[in-house]
Design brief:
The chain has 15 helices and 39 strands. It starts with a helix and ends with a strand. The strands form ten sheets. Strands 12, 13, 14, 15 and 16 form a five-stranded antiparallel sheet that branches. It has a four-stranded antiparallel sheet with strand order 1-23-22-21, with no helix packed on it. The chain is α+β, with helices and mostly antiparallel strands. The longest helix is centred in the last third of the chain and has 21 residues. Strand 6 and strand 7 form a beta hairpin. InterPro entries: Bact_OuterMem_StrucFunc, OMP_bac, OmpA-like, OmpA-like_sf. Keywords: Cell outer membrane, Membrane.
Length: 760
């Protein structure tokens, strides 16, 4: 009786191992359980746990791992990792860690598991169950020919109608490996290829060949006007092999099919070797004349890898090149299968790359004819915690996958991915962030049709985008600079929403000058490090707007001779020019002038006793960027962001700290930093005669009046009209900030032309 039990267990284990190798994990798990019932062993329990996990039956996997751990001297670190993988998948990681600790199974540090959690956001189901094709049996891999006929795989059998209930797996005590009509281990028919014609009629494809049992994985391709089908086959080889200890693995075949879907002949792929390795899931790519397939032949990275051969037709047969492995960006130590190529992208299924559970579908870009990019998981809109595989695409809106995610029996079904939601959401505002309700927004495909908008709310527009298209937006509102955006593209975008916010700048009422001043140490032309930020900001503006040119005027104080000061101011102008050229600004866009001591900012001529702060104001280079509105409008297409240009003054002032005047409470006179700030303001007001200046404050009112009056007096003394200067005191800082936000940013965009200085 012991011998009979051992022989029966050996037979079961041998078959279970075959099914595991061929990734038939559901069959393998139940066979391993049957073997364990006959005689409990670590091998049976561990393999049952592994196969249940691969089939996403995590509760059962945990149960069988615990049985494997009972054989304390045999479990491995991989068992611990698999145990934790299953626990994480059902949210029981902490409980399982406690179990390991309490049972002293191991005290090793466990490495992270290769698992992506599925979000719980819910929402619209991204897939549609194909009720006209799926049955209560297993149905998977939908292929399509040029005439619209659809081919798929099923083990439904000719006698299985929609009302029948699929038998669960059963086991036969006989040594018979295969039955004549049904697959002995499932009680269902062998896998066959079925064809659904344009009218919806479904018939089995005649693929009878020598010893054919399982026939699967159809791929139809048209070569020289003839349709050919590549497919995989598992054959009955018991009459060809005398030994009982052998493993049959799938092979590839191909043949021509007629207009009725009948296979005219079946020709073996020359690389078939069913007693050494398997060949499954062929895909014939008509565009590249490549045949992709998965195989566990020697020389791969582990499990099933994806390979390709090139082919060409010679008579009714094909000639194939030697197989080439797709490399480690595609293949892993586990299994890859179901290759498919479409418009420069490569798709496949894998249980080796980081995924959501079981087989997941991945994509990779074809970088060259021989090199693929990194594999990318297609996300939870495509993948689930179950097996997801056999990605097939026939146009932008017709995509199919196979999955065992649903169904009472947990069998495979075919699903259609719902059309990807590619959308454009655009919002139109002015430079202050106010919505522009009546802006005319026009969207069209570049060199193509216009696209209709849907208004979601004031100033917000929503449009549906077609796949693999480039678009242009035009916004032309009277009184504002027009916007042209050609950067919108759905090329390579599987789904998602492209968001754009457009800020429209008002056309200024007058020309604008952007001004700055940098200062030098005594008797030096070297630019101070503290002035680098100012020059860098000017460089940034000039790079953004290539039509702008820079005027540089350099000066000295009155000390030393006129001749010496001329040379020194020339060196200072040259220092600015060299700095700008070193940052990438062409020399021809920089106009340099030097005046020595001829244009003193502060009246400190030879012989007059002046403070060092006063002399410092004379040691300077004035920088002016002039923007002519007429020229600006004539060349508006060269500018991308008018709000940035019209607010460049604001940014430059902030970085130069010219937007505020800091005083100490006890100060009764203007100091060096305050004077330099006021000189920057004086130059700006001088170059922009329509700009007015407001001083704001929220400190002690008497102190504010004193400081503001000193500032106003200085500017009027430097030639600025008092009509352009005003001051205003507030009860609190918040009111100051609110006024700055409302007025300052609107200075050039609205034509109010005012700048606000905060006195602290």
């Amino acid at each position: 009786m012991v011998a009979l039990t051992a022989n029966a267990q050996y037979s079961l284990l041998r078959y279970a191992d075959q099914q595991k190798t061929q990734m038939n994990y559901k069959v393998a798990a139940e066979v391993y359980e049957k073997a364990y019932e006959k005689r409990p062993t670590y091998t049976s329990a561990q393999n049952a746990a592994f196969c249940h996990s691969k089939n996403n039956e995590y509760d059962l996997s945990i149960e069988w791992y615990k049985k494997a751990f009972a054989f304390s001297g045999e479990y491995t670190d991989e068992d611990i990792t698999g145990f934790l993988d299953a626990a994480l998948a059902i949210g029981q990681r902490e409980e399982i860690l406690d179990y390991l600790s309490e049972n002293r199974i191991t005290d090793k540090e466990h490495k992270p598991v290769n698992y992506k959690p599925v979000s719980k956001t819910g929402g619209e189901d991204p897939v549609k169950y194909l009720g006209d094709i799926n049955s209560v049996a297993a149905d998977f891999i939908l292929d399509k020919d040029a005439n619209g006929n659809r081919y798929f795989v099923s083990d439904r059998g000719e006698k299985l109608d929609d009302g029948a209930r699929v038998k669960k797996l059963r086991f036969d005590a006989k040594n018979k490996m295969y039955g004549e009509e049904i697959y002995e281990w499932t009680g269902r028919d062998y896998l066959k290829i079925y064809r659904q014609d344009a009218e919806g009629n479904i018939h089995a494809v005649n693929t009878k060949g020598s010893g054919f049992m399982h026939v699967s994985d159809p791929s139809v391709v048209t070569v020289e006007g003839v349709d050919y089908m590549f497919f995989s086959v598992t054959r009955d080889l018991k009459d060809e092999v005398k030994s009982r200890d052998f493993e049959i693995q799938p092979e590839l075949y191909y043949g021509a099919i007629n207009k009725d879907g009948r296979l005219l002949f079946a020709q073996p792929f020359p690389r078939n070797s069913p007693l050494k390795y398997g060949l499954i899931t062929p895909f014939a790519d008509q565009e590249t004349s490549r045949l992709y397939f998965a195989s566990n032949m020697e020389g791969g990275y582990g499990g099933y890898d994806i390979y390709y051969v090139t082919y060409y037709k010679e008579g009714d047969r094909f000639i194939f090149s030697a197989p080439a492995n797709l490399g480690e960006r595609i293949n892993s130590k586990s299994n890859e299968r179901d290759p498919f190529a479409y418009k420069g992208k490569f798709y496949f299924a894998s249980d080796g790359h980081s995924g959501y559970g079981g087989l997941d579908i991945f994509s990779a870009r074809s970088l060259t004819g021989e090199v693929f990019g990194q594999a990318v998981n297609m996300g939870e809109k495509v993948n689930s915690v179950s097996d997801d595989f056999a990605y097939r695409q026939y146009g932008d809106e017709e995509i199919y996958i196979s999955s065992n995610r649903k169904g009472e029996e947990g069998l495979d079904d075919i699903y259609q991915l719902l059309p990807a939601r590619r959308k454009l959401l655009a919002k139109v505002m002015d430079c202050d962030g106010n919505v522009l309700e009546n802006a005319p927004v026009v969207l069209h495909q570049i060199d193509g049709d216009s696209v209709e908008w849907k208004r979601k709310e004031e100033g917000t527009f929503l449009a549906d985008l077609s796949a693999e298209q480039n678009y242009e937006i035009k916004i032309d509102l009277e009184g504002y600079f027009p916007v042209y955006d050609k950067s919108i593209s759905s090329v390579g975008l599987d789904s998602g929403t492209i968001k754009r916010t457009y800020y429209l700048a008002k056309i200024p009422a007058a020309d604008i000058a952007i001004t700055e001043i940098i200062y030098y140490d005594l008797d030096r032309s070297l630019i101070r490090r503290t002035e680098h930020d100012i020059l860098d900001d000017v460089v940034e503006v000039m790079k953004m707007y290539p039509r702008l040119s820079l005027d540089v005027s350099s000066h000295t104080d009155s000390r030393a001779t006129d001749r010496y000061n001329q040379r020194l101011s020339k060196s200072r102008a040259k220092s600015v020019e060299d700095y700008m050229v070193g940052k990438g600004i062409p020399k021809e866009r920089i106009n340099v002038n030097w005046f020595g001591e001829g244009r003193l900012a502060v009246d400190c001529p030879d012989g007059k006793d002046c403070s060092e702060d006063q002399h410092q104001l004379n040691r300077r280079s004035e920088l002016v960027l002039k923007v002519a509105v007429d020229d600006w409008l004539a060349n508006h297409k060269e500018y991308k962001d008018y709000c940035s240009l019209t607010s460049s003054l604001d940014e430059l002032l902030k970085k130069a700290e010219a937007d505020k005047l800091d005083f100490e409470p006890e100060e009764d006179a203007l100091g060096g930093e305050q004077l330099m700030t006021l000189e920057r303001l004086k130059l700006f007001l001088q170059m922009n005669p329509k700009v007015v200046l407001r001083f704001l404050g929220a400190s002690d009112q008497a102190v504010f009046e004193k400081w503001a009056s000193m500032s106003v007096d200085y500017l009027t003394g430097r030639g600025i009209s008092s009509k352009r200067l005003s001051k205003e005191w507030f009860e609190n800082v918040e009111e100051v900030q609110g006024t700055k936000h409302q007025s300052r940013m609107a200075s050039f965009d609205t034509g109010l032309q005012e700048i606000i200085i905060e006195i602290k």
